[in-house]
Amino acid sequence: MFVRIVKMSFHPEHIDRFQSIFEEKKELIRNSSGCRLLELYRGKQDDNIFFTYSYWEKEEDLETYRQSELFKETWAETKVLFNDKPEAWSVDKVVSLQ
Q1: Are 49 and 43 within 8 A, CB to CB?
Q2: Angle, to 10 degrees, between the axis of helix 59-66 and the axis of helix 69-79?
Q3: Under a CB-based contact definition with an 8 Å cutoff, are residues 11 and 48 in contact?
Q4: What is the rounded CA–CA span in Å between residue 11 and residue 9?
Q5: What's the pLDDT tens digit per position in 44-97?
Q6: DSSP code for 8
Q7: pLDDT (tens digit, 9 = 90+) per residue, 32-44?
Q8: Is the separation of the CB atoms in 24 and 73 below 8 Å?
Q9: Cα–Cα distance between 42 and 61 in angstroms, integer?
Q10: CA–CA distance from 31 to each of 45, 64, 86 (Å)?
């Protein structure tokens, strides 16, 4: 399993639209094959910045999602709202304490 982290920064006037898109799509994304967790975070110091964390069984699952119509439609709706280039990382979880 690995974690995909995506950092997105939005124009302030588009934040409500982004949150609406996320609300509409979150269950569909979470139920994509291989997706085990989906979380959305908002910056404390800069509330125009959001992060998604998603946990995937294997890289092929993420790639299948990224080639899906769901991703293409969601990304097309979201990317026009950005005020900066998004950043993304795929990382392996090393330690998790709860």
Answers
A1: yes
A2: 70
A3: yes
A4: 7
A5: 999 999 999 999 999 999 999 999 999 999 999 999 999 999 999 999 989 989
A6: E
A7: 999 999 999 999 9
A8: no
A9: 26
A10: 31, 13, 23
Q: Is 34 left (phi over 0), alpha (psi -120 to 50) or beta?
A: left
* Eight-class DSSP state of 13: G
The residue type found at 98 is Q
Residue 88 near residue 5 (C-beta atoms within 8 A): yes
Could you tell me if residue 79 is left (phi over 0), alpha (psi between -120 and 50 degrees) or otherwise beta? alpha
Q: 38: part of which helix (H) or strand (E)? A: strand 35-42
Q: In angstroms, rounded to a whole number, what is the distance separating the alpha carbons of residues 79 and 60? A: 23
Find how far residue 32's CA is from the centre of its chain. Answer: 13
Which residue type occupies 28?
L
